Amino acid sequence: MEKTVKILITGKLHDIALKLLNNQPSELAVSESLKIVYIPDAPRDIILKEIEDTHVLISRSETDVDAELLRKAKKLSVVARAAVGYGNIDCDLATEMGILVVNTPGKNTNSAAELTMGLLLALVRKIPQAHMSTSAGGWNRHKFSGTELGDKTIGIVGLGNVGHRVAKFAKGFDMRVIAYDPYISEDVFRKNQAERKNTLEELLAECDVLSVHVPLNKETKGMISLVELKKMRKGGIILNAARGGIVAERALLEVLNEGYIVGAAIDTFDNEPKPLQELIAHPNVIVTPHIGASTAEAQYRIGETIAIQVLKALRGEIVDYPVNLPHVSLLGSNDLKVFSVLSEKVSRFGAQIFDFQPAILKLTVKANLNKEDLQVLKLSAIKGFLSHASEEFVSYVNAEKILQRKGLEFEIEMTPSSSAKNELLFEVYGKGTSEKISVGAVLYDGKFARLSSINDFLFEIELDNDLIVMQNHDRPGVIGDVGSYLAKNNVNIAQFELSRNRRGGMAMSLIRIDGDLESEVVAGLRKLPNLISARLVSGL
Ligand SMILES: NC(=O)C1=CN([C@@H]2O[C@H](COP(=O)(O)OP(=O)(O)OC[C@H]3O[C@@H](n4cnc5c(N)ncnc54)[C@H](O)[C@@H]3O)[C@@H](O)[C@H]2O)C=CC1
Ligand SMILES: O=C(O)CCC(=O)C(=O)O
């Protein structure tokens, strides 16, 4: 029966996301049928109920994906954050549970940076206050006098996607741009014409406007507290369109009340959707309800990207924007995609053809790959092996962790390939000297994948459907007996390959069959004359 995947969507998404999920383009089509439950703005208790049988959660900032939610999610394999910040997702627990977390970096950058500049202009020119007064019938040209941005200094904390775009816009207003970001190279400062400040203190001492653009984490929570605010010049301005909590709200209120800081513009709050009342009602503060990403353009890009990430994840491909995928950044080429699927299949095959206690898994790759791509093949091989040999849900996310927990070692080796043929050899070793199996595969032209060997026996057979792996003495009549037995049991053979080490010696056959195969049918094969073993290899 076709499997149904439940996708729970708890934040408002652009229609493009639903369109892509409902009408999947052929290159992203999934074999499961999708049940989409779209409940933006649903109360928490409904989300906690719905999550129990959900496979994929797509959320925005209003849904805390915390331990309470994750522990109820018995079937969850993907959390897709339709945004950049994932501070409200318990990524450590998600990783431990093998749940992939993805996000959409860069897709709302421009919108967030434009809102930041909008807030700044609105603040220094008192636009919201002037609008309220004028639209109510007033005409006060003195009360709403403001200050210019030109020649003022903006201090940017976090010169990432949003920060460097704010730097660019601020330059357009003839501002002096200084920035503090200890995690990026000198080049990024130079390219964005931002003067580098080596410490936060240096930055604070020199800026008229402080704008934070860092993620919220243990290091950045409260990084702008009373001490830091007091290190700014008197008369400064604070902008926060990143995350509530980066600027300590009570401290900000205190310096605003003192008149030490003369204005603040805030889009993101500690306690959303119920921010600190005294702060949002302060006459020198202007606020928006976390709308940095709320533009048609950003939401289109995010909707499109998140749907693609979800479909890729469901197809078992490596996603473009993983948050918690160890060491894997982007799945570069289509060839690599095909190669990684082959790596997973070969190891899943290998996991089903040995009878000893495994100790070491080894993947030998003949190809010309960079380090990251090799890592993709390694994770695919571990995933393939474990997903057969483990009760746990295994994904690219937790594969290495589970392997370690099982006490298995993994070795990987690469030798260069000089042709359009890439090769894989997956080996499983036990502790004893004779305890070893190997499965080889070849990928021709980045497209055509074939199983090429099992131990010393050579083959050329496609790796799909169920396969019977059979060992027998090389005697006349064996193939006929097997063919009639399978026919009697209504099993249609799609491909039959025989390989033998020497005439009259040992032979190994691979039988690719159409449809599913009952294990009793395979057990019956073992009773035929001259058969040594017959195994079913499935899940390819
Ligand atoms: N208001 C809204 O709706 C939106 C808010 N955001 C928020 O804006 C923030 C920045 O987003 P992006 O620029 O896309 O992220 P990003 O990851 O591209 O940039 C963050 C930068 O902060 C730097 N950083 C990290 N820790 C730091 C520290 N302790 N001190 C100084 N710099 C540090 C990093 O090196 C990086 O360059 C995030 O919190 C994101 O969630 C982003 C988009 C929309
Ligand atoms: O619009 C949203 O859901 C949140 C946007 C945001 O804050 C982010 O991308 O980090």
TrEMBL record:
<dbReference type="InterPro" id="IPR006140">
    <property type="entry name" value="D-isomer_DH_NAD-bd"/>
</dbReference>
<keyword id="KW-0520">NAD</keyword>
<dbReference type="InterPro" id="IPR029753">
    <property type="entry name" value="D-isomer_DH_CS"/>
</dbReference>
<dbReference type="InterPro" id="IPR006139">
    <property type="entry name" value="D-isomer_2_OHA_DH_cat_dom"/>
</dbReference>
<keyword id="KW-0007">Acetylation</keyword>
<keyword id="KW-0560">Oxidoreductase</keyword>
<dbReference type="GO" id="GO:0004617">
    <property type="term" value="F:phosphoglycerate dehydrogenase activity"/>
</dbReference>
<feature type="domain" description="ACT">
    <location>
        <begin position="467"/>
        <end position="539"/>
    </location>
</feature>
<keyword id="KW-0597">Phosphoprotein</keyword>
<dbReference type="InterPro" id="IPR002912">
    <property type="entry name" value="ACT_dom"/>
</dbReference>
<dbReference type="Pfam" id="PF00389">
    <property type="entry name" value="2-Hacid_dh"/>
</dbReference>
<dbReference type="InterPro" id="IPR045865">
    <property type="entry name" value="ACT-like_dom_sf"/>
</dbReference>
<keyword id="KW-0718">Serine biosynthesis</keyword>
<comment type="similarity">
    <text>Belongs to the D-isomer specific 2-hydroxyacid dehydrogenase family.</text>
</comment>
<dbReference type="GO" id="GO:0006564">
    <property type="term" value="P:L-serine biosynthetic process"/>
</dbReference>
<comment type="function">
    <text>Catalyzes the reversible oxidation of 3-phospho-D-glycerate to 3-phosphonooxypyruvate, the first step of the phosphorylated L-serine biosynthesis pathway. Also catalyzes the reversible oxidation of 2-hydroxyglutarate to 2-oxoglutarate.</text>
</comment>
<dbReference type="GO" id="GO:0051287">
    <property type="term" value="F:NAD binding"/>
</dbReference>
<dbReference type="InterPro" id="IPR006236">
    <property type="entry name" value="PGDH"/>
</dbReference>
<protein>
    <recommendedName>
        <fullName>D-3-phosphoglycerate dehydrogenase</fullName>
        <ecNumber>1.1.1.95</ecNumber>
    </recommendedName>
</protein>
<dbReference type="Pfam" id="PF01842">
    <property type="entry name" value="ACT"/>
</dbReference>
<dbReference type="Pfam" id="PF02826">
    <property type="entry name" value="2-Hacid_dh_C"/>
</dbReference>
<dbReference type="InterPro" id="IPR029009">
    <property type="entry name" value="ASB_dom_sf"/>
</dbReference>
<comment type="pathway">
    <text>Amino-acid biosynthesis; L-serine biosynthesis; L-serine from 3-phospho-D-glycerate: step 1/3.</text>
</comment>
<dbReference type="InterPro" id="IPR036291">
    <property type="entry name" value="NAD(P)-bd_dom_sf"/>
</dbReference>
<comment type="subunit">
    <text>Homotetramer.</text>
</comment>
<keyword id="KW-0028">Amino-acid biosynthesis</keyword>
<dbReference type="InterPro" id="IPR029752">
    <property type="entry name" value="D-isomer_DH_CS1"/>
</dbReference>
